[in-house]
């Protein structure tokens, strides 16, 4: 793989990861943390940057075959865990969440725009870009991704050049770190990372079979670029929000970035809405492609075409997005709390299996699932 291809794939990975949760959670966390933001950054780096990179590494080592990846814990349990992860990042979770945040970006300036009408328009755009599966990563990496990075960077730089100071808070280092850790879970990037590997391999095509060692090395470098970009943007968002948190203290978290845009950029704040729309669109396209491929090939065993799956999934996404951002979050949070730690463990033991022959997998994963389930229902 050439350097240009690696960089393009890295940008594509970042663009696919960076959706609604990646905008909302770091900004909201920075606003709350104030001068405790460095410890929160460590937490979100661990769960929101390092973990997605580990997910990419794990699935790349399985050559994008997430069936083999999940079935190491058993055929039926593996199928069920894959289904839960897919539903969470698919049409009942992360995809409608991106649509609701994109709507929030426009309703900040056009409050009369109804959510139902916007979801239809967004669904048409996602449908248009997603139907050609093999071209998705190329479009995101070459066009949508760079636009997203440029606009996000403009918001951050404007925040740094506007004088303000960090507000003192009484959070301990451990409290700040823990809050950052859990906000990183909410991005759901680890779940997406496991499935994005197949999409990337599909985009590269025949090059994947020429020299597997070089190809895997190239994908790992691309993963590092994507994770690095996530870390830079998270840092910028959290520090910007921490610096100006008092000016946007009463704004809802789904509209926090637009309030900051208004405060920092004035009339140019509308560019923030465009930024978020691009961010959400690229993530929605990638997730819709991955979820539709899963529905077509795994759930229906090829009896439902990819294009038909895309159409059905976009329709469900539009319907579910009408719950609004917080309504969608009520569905996502329990699943993320229970399944995310188990996915981390599965990624780590699968990496160990592929690299050093470490075979135990069921006990670590099942024990983690049992602990988080009991913890969630209040028995621990």
TL;DR?
This protein is mainly alpha-helical and 380 residues long. The chain has 17 helices and no strands.
The CATH topology is what? Amino acid/polyamine transporter I
Give the total of domains: 1
- Assigned CATH class: Mainly Alpha
Strand % is: under 5%
What is the number of strand segments? 0
What's the mean pLDDT score? Answer: 83
The level of helicity is over 70%
Distance between the termini: 49 Å
Question: Order of helices and strands, N to C?
Answer: HHHHHHHHHHHHHHHHH
Largest sheet: none
Radius of gyration: 20 Å
List unreliable stretches of 5+ residues: none
CATH-defined architecture = Up-down Bundle
Number of helices: 17
Can you characterise this structure?
The protein is an all-alpha fold. It has a single domain, classed as Amino acid/polyamine transporter I (Up-down Bundle). 79% of the residues lie in helices and 0% in strands. It has helices spanning 3-17, 20-33, 37-61, 66-71, 75-89, 94-107, 115-130, 136-160, 173-186, 189-204, 207-210, 212-243, 256-265, 270-299, 306-321, 325-356, 362-376. Helix 1 (3-17) packs antiparallel against helix 10 (189-204), helix 3 runs antiparallel to helix 12 (212-243) and helix 14 (270-299) crosses helix 15 (306-321).
